[in-house]
Amino acid sequence: MTENLPPYQMPDQHGKVQGVAAKKVNKLLSDLNIKADIQVMPWARAYKIAVNEPGTLIFSIVRTPAREDLFHWLGVLMSTKTYLISLRKRSDIKVERLSDLLNYRVGVKRDDVVFQYLQSKGMLDTIVVLPETFVTVKMLLKGRADIIAASPIHLDYMCEKIGCKRSDFRFLFELDELSNDFYLAANRQTSADIILLLQQKLAEQN
Which residues pair with 180 in a beta bridge? Predict the structure, then answer.
C-alpha cells in the first residue's frame, strides 16, 4: 500500500508504481521472489488497510511514537532533509538562524508543511504564498522569491521537469524539524520469518 507522493512513489501511465522509494521496494520484493501488487490510494485508506489486513506492507511511512506498536518496521527507504535554498549566484543571502528569513522573500506553497512550520514560528511577514511547489522553484529562478524550501531529492525531481539543475542552487540552512526517515513497514500479523527476511534484505540494500 502506498500513496501518490512524487518523486518517492507515483503511478506511471500504465499504473506501474515508479519513484525513488518504489524502486527500492520493487527491488526488495524481486530479490526475494515475492509477488506483490502495489496499490496507490489516498493515504488514510492505505494506512487503515496496512494496520488491519495481514500480509500487507506500507511505504513511505514516517515512524512516530503513536505508530510504533501498530507495525513491524522493516527499515528506512529514504532519508529526507528539508533545506532553505537560494540561487547560487545570490551570494548576498545569508541565513544562520530562522529569524534571518525576515530579511528575505520566502516562497512557500499554501498550507503545506513548510508554510505551517513557518507560521508556527511567526515567520509569515515575508512569505510569498504560492499555489504549488513547482511554482516556488520558478519564482526563485525568476528572482521573484529569494529563498524556498525543498529536499535535495524533490529539488532534483522538479528540475527534471522544468529544466534546471541542482548546481544552480545553494543550500543555506536545514530545517531539522521537517527532516524525516521514510520507512517500509508491515502489518503486525505478518509472520516473524518473513519480517526477518525483509529486514535483512533491506539492510543489505542500504
Answer: 80
Chunked mean pLDDT (size 10), the chain, 206 residues? 90 90 95 91 93 95 91 95 96 94 92 85 86 88 95 90 94 90 96 94 91
CA 56 to the chain's CA centroid: 21
Q: What's the whole-model pTM score?
A: 0.74
CA distances from 43 to 2, 27, 50, 90, 142 (A): 7, 23, 10, 38, 34
> Where in 55-136 does DSSP place strands (E)?
57-62, 71-80, 83-87, 106-109, 127-130
Q: At a CB cut-off of 8 Å and minimum separation 6, what does 29 contact? A: 35, 36
What sign results for the dihedral spanned by CA atoms 83, 85, 91, 93?
negative
Rg (CA), the chain: 19
| Closest by CA position to 29, among listed 63, 45, 21 | 21
Reduced to 3 states, what is the DSSP secondary structure of residue 45? helix
